[in-house]
Design brief:
The protein is of the alpha+beta class and about 725 residues long. The protein has a 5-stranded mixed beta sheet. The protein has a 4-stranded antiparallel beta sheet with strand order 2-3-4-5, with no helix packed on it. Helix 7 (about 555-570) runs antiparallel to helix 8 (about 575-590) and helix 12 runs antiparallel to helix 13. This is Mic1 domain-containing protein. Pfam families: RMC1_C, RMC1_N.
Amino acid sequence: MIRNLSFEVKIQHNLKKCFYYDDGNKLLLSPTSNQVFSWKTAPFSPNAAPNIDSITEGPICSIRFSLDEKLIAVQRSNTSIIFFHRETGETFTHRCKSESESILGFFWTDCPSCDIVVVKTSGLDLYAYDHASKSLALVETKKMTVSWYVYTHESRLVLLASGMQCKTFHGFQLSSVGIIRLPKFEMVMAKPEANSKPVLASEDVYIVTVYGRIYCLQVDRVAMVLHSYRFYRDAIIQQGSLPIYSHKVAVSVVDNVLLVHQVDAKVIILYDIFSDSRAPISAPLPVLFRGFPRSDSFTSRPGTKESESLEASDSNDNEAIIYGEGWTFLVPDLICDVANMRLWKIHLDLEAISASSSEVPSVLEFLQRRKLEANKAKQLCLAITRTMILERRPINMVAKSMDVLVTSYALSLKAGSYFKGIKTERTSSSVPNVSGPGQGVDVNTGRTDGLGKSVQHESASRVNSVSVSRPSNYLSSETEDSSSFEPLKISSNDAQFDSGKVDTGAESSATGNPLNASVSEQQESQLTSPAISPDEMYRFVFAPAEEEMIGEPSYLVSIILEFFRSANLEKVKVHPNLYVLTVQLLARSEQYAELGLCVINKIIEPSKEVALQLLESGRQNFQIRKLGSDMLRQVSLHQDYVLLLVQDGYYLEALRYARKHKVTTIRPSLFLEAAMTSNDSQHLAAVLRFFSDFIPGFHSTSDFSTYYHILNEMNSSSVVA
């Protein structure tokens, strides 16, 4: 089961149920005849209170705030847009100059050459806002026939549909580095059995961003597939199709996971297209409701029918939610429930997804790419790996899992994401809302047909993307094959076209900060990555497994050796305690020959901890103990080695070694006592002479007086005898 509807904002006021979504500012808007109610959806809060602005009375086709949120633009008809200044209350109106063209919609942009783009049936008009004259100045016009358009602020990409079947597209990216024109392309549409030609509708086209790469998804209801297109500078490449099982389909993106809502079938199919895979990551999953405690100010008045209905609904937390007829899916991860006046936010139930697949390495790969709930993903990975070992799964399966975890950790270290904390951000780009004009896509009019009629469908606002490997993104020029095309991706400032060659949108060798659209809705966390360090592998996987496993430890040793192999390939340093555990396990099963080979071949890396454990485990095996003493010298632990020699009775050799390696921290009395214990006066005399020669003032110490007296007594005893 998947917990998809986990938070809610109760939108309660006696207004007409008409909502628009401004994806540039992450605002849910509900206008009345003379007011606009607006709710912040990022960061998502169930207790969000609306802001209220006054506007003049009149029809509303579309409404959006500028990115600095100083202006409100309202499309009154297919020929006029009126602008309201929120602070001063001043207004001005923009009208079409030609009666033969009509306005399909508009959006704000942070493009340096213009502030707002008006989409008309005759093409695009790019305008700059003149603060002094309170008017729009035309910057550029791009002429072409347009039937409808799709735009998302996150991608800064607008697609303009034209043709008899509306399957011919022109594309423009209006980003902070300028305007980039995509090549013209056509979408694939299956032919029905009859001679009729289906017409592509705006609600059948989605722009989504996954792992920093921009895709277009197109619903083909004749072929019952979801076509996927990836954007490059010189080409738009179709990248396969996903099957659909419902005529009513919607798309969401949560933490870079593509969710295809099969509305009629009341299930969701999840895809993780990190490596352009088209296989679902789990079986089809239902939608579950998980409520959030709501503030009193946002609950219905008790005793009302609405209150009773909501209370009954909320009491059934464990029941599957039936897709509502009035639901509008806002890409990436919001649902506007107009009938119940609620805004839902989609979340993934990582536990359910993990439990729905038996392919453990694939599940671990999926969890290691999760960013929104990195800590939960990490805990699941630890639990899955520990359980897999306790259940004694096949070694090759465990080895693949170790490769996944170690590789992920190595990549996170290179990217610098393992130790960095997450700070909550407000917007999907590094440009703050107050720095420039913004953009919005409304729920009802984000996609508009040629007559200016509202369409109940929404384009993407933002997506949860991971680190990309360039500080800004451009598209490469077209070359011999599609594998060399560079995708349209998301940058640290906005979406641009990438000119560098990158295999995936989440390379760990990132040199810049990507647009991390997921951060704006996360609670603060100290984890940016679910990667698991070798220390955590020891503490939470291997050590607990060693305590719980019964019988011959050879299986656990084999698993640990596979972990060493993976760590060596990725040049990841293994925690010394794991080497110590390996020594203990091999010694416990009296596999001294294997232990010796592991030490000699440096499968077990030398360290003080390992050396001391070899000495301890070598009490019953001289060769292992010798390996431990040799390791002390190997890691330059000269004092420990000297103490070991003294302890074993080799105090004269210890003196020579201490002098050679300048070990001066050991008390002379330790050597003198060992020499005295041997009852050899010549050895005691040699030790006294050594310290007298090499330690200035030793003749004046109590040690010299004590042991010189003992030496004289030993000599006297030998003479008498």
